Amino acid sequence: MALVTFGGKMIKTSGDLPALGSRAPDFCLVDGQLGDRTLDNWARKVKILNIVPSFDTPVCATSVRRFNQEVEKEPMLVVLGISCDLPFAQSRFCQNEGIRNIIPLSQMRDRSFGRDYGVEIVDSPMAGLLSRAVVVLDRENTVVYTQQVADIGNPPDYAAALEAARAALAK
């Protein structure tokens, strides 16, 4: 279980991020057309999982915008923006913000993603949401980078995540 802070208070997550070098747990998340998506949908691509509590908060919105800009010229790199938001809200946010390089995914039907990746918040008023984290997977879905952001109010380390993703692309 990871301990992170929010508003200066400690909160717990359901576990720890997947270990470096391990195979990423598969998932079934919902896209903007209410279709189910799994890791197989992006086979042979390097994936950045940008995990956030909600697209509709300032730090999360900035995270989605920043990754959107950073991967614009990387056709073999996909960024999956994952939250508990409804797919309709995620799609509306992306449309309003001109986000075209992020694939928004919701865990609205199956809450196992948060538990399997160790990012489900289990206490505090935010219980049930996802903590802020980044996981980078290589083409074979091996975990090559993780960051559990220590304070949910802070952004992830974009440079480190992108460096790990680009290194995975080069292999």
Could you explain the architecture of this structure?
This protein has helices at residues 58-70, 87-97, 112-116, 158-170; strands spanning 3-6, 9-12, 29-30, 36-37, 46-51, 77-83, 102-106, 133-137, 143-148. By secondary structure, it is an alpha/beta fold. It has a single domain (3-170), classed as Glutaredoxin, CATH 3.40.30. The chain is globular. The N and C termini lie far apart (32 Å). The mean pLDDT is 92. The active site is at 60 (cysteine sulfenic acid (-soh) intermediate). Keywords: Antioxidant, Disulfide bond, Oxidoreductase, Peroxidase, Redox-active center. Thiol-specific peroxidase that catalyzes the reduction of hydrogen peroxide and organic hydroperoxides to water and alcohols, respectively. Plays a role in cell protection against oxidative stress by detoxifying peroxides. InterPro entries: Redoxin (IPR013740), Thioredoxin-like_sf (IPR036249), Thioredoxin_domain (IPR013766), TPX (IPR002065), Tpx_CS (IPR018219), Tpx_Peroxidase_subfamily (IPR050455).
Architecture blueprint of SSEs:
Layout: E1 3-6, E2 9-12, E3 29-30, E4 36-37, E5 46-51, H1 58-70, E6 77-83, H2 87-97, E7 102-106, H3 112-116, E8 133-137, E9 143-148, H4 158-170
Parallel strand pairs: 5-6, 6-7
Antiparallel strand pairs: 1-2, 3-4, 5-8, 8-9
Keywords: Antioxidant, Disulfide bond, Oxidoreductase, Peroxidase, Redox-active center
Disulfide bonds: 60-94
Protein name: Thiol peroxidase
